[in-house]
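REQUEST ID: PR-0412
SUBMITTED BY: lab tech R.K.
PRIORITY: routine
TASK: structure prediction, single protein chain
INPUT:
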Amino acid sequence: VQLVESGGGLAQPGGSLRLTCAASGFTFSNYAMSWVRQAPGKGLEWVSAINNDGSVTYYTDSVKGRFTISRDNAKNTLYLQMNRLKPEDTGLYFCAKHASHKVVFTASGPDYTDWGQGMQVTVTS
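STATUS: complete
OUTPUT:
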């Protein structure tokens, strides 16, 4: 399994960025996916998730209405469109593969099986 993020970088508050996660080594269309971030000096924060066929999406409250998760199963690619960025969106963003076609959060946390290497997003004026 390989997950490679791209598209991060520097943005001004109110600006936009689109993150891409290129997946390989598994049947992408069979698995739910998530985006997770880590702000400087803080722990991991789940951001958004999507089921295997893209029909169901989930967002943490702080990004609802600003971020959009999507996927193109023909291209084995996951996306995160980030609009109206805020300084508090700064962090290292990871894509993560779930264990099945559904987005599952257990009592011990989400059922991630694999992670990308992360992509830095910095929002500053």
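NOTES: The two ends are 37 Å apart (CA to CA).
REVIEWED BY: pending
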